[in-house]
Amino acid sequence: MFIQHMMGILHHPKEEWSQIRKEHYSISHIFIQQVSILAAIPAVAMFIGTTQVGWSIAGSEYVKLGVASALPAAIAFYFAMWVAVGFITYAIHWMEKNYGGNAALEDCLSLATYTATPMFLSGLAALYPLLWFNVSIGLIAVCYSVYLLYVGVPVIMKIPEERAFLFSTSILTVGLCTLVGVLVASVVLWSTVIPLNYIAA
To answer: Of 30, 100, 138, 146, which has the fewest CB atoms closer than 10 Å, so is most exposed?
Structure first.
């Protein structure tokens, strides 16, 4: 069912959000069978891309990462995705009362997870870690995730369109701040706790 919803949310989001709203999965189910799979996509792709292909800014002078440093970095990034989704879910649940929402925590988690699906899938681009390519794919994914958010909030949270717009904007702000926080934390982590070992390709 998860794969069906994932494909549906990419092809016909308005109809798929309604189907998702009718189903109620536990938090553990969503994390174990959905978030765990989605979070692994960018983590595994980055590990393979950085160790086998190598980073490049303009398509030349590739620099690889040693497996010994790339593996813990990928694992840390994987669990950071869990924390990010959990934090955004909590923020949605905490803010919803201000906008007339009354959704269960599980619904808030579904909203956060499916909204972030395009960004998780865009992690496949890291298999070929060329800077401009990854940034372009990432921006497209972010734009579509924003669209999914604005379409999904009134359906999942069951609130009027005008309030849903304001609520979606608040969630977007939290999401972007969380994304920046994860990136900053990654840079700090990789420069101190898990220093990266670069190898000339």
So the answer is: 100
Amino acid at 75: I
Strand residues in the chain grouped as ranges (E): 63-65, 198-200
Question: For the whole prediction, is pTM greater than 0.90?
Answer: no
Region of poorest pLDDT, from 42-46, 63-67, 93-97: 63-67
- Specify whether the CB–CB gap between 127 and 72 falls below 8 A: no
Helix, strand or coil for residue 194? coil
Q: Is the pLDDT of residue 145 over 90?
A: yes
How far apart (Å, rounded) are the C-alpha atoms in residues 196 and 73? Answer: 8
Residue 168 CA neighbour count, 13 Å, CB half: 22
Distance CA 50, CA 44 (A): 10
At 66, give phi and psi (nearest 5°).
-70, 145
- Check residue 201 and report its DSSP letter: -
pLDDT-derived band at 194 (thresholds 50, 70, 90) equals low
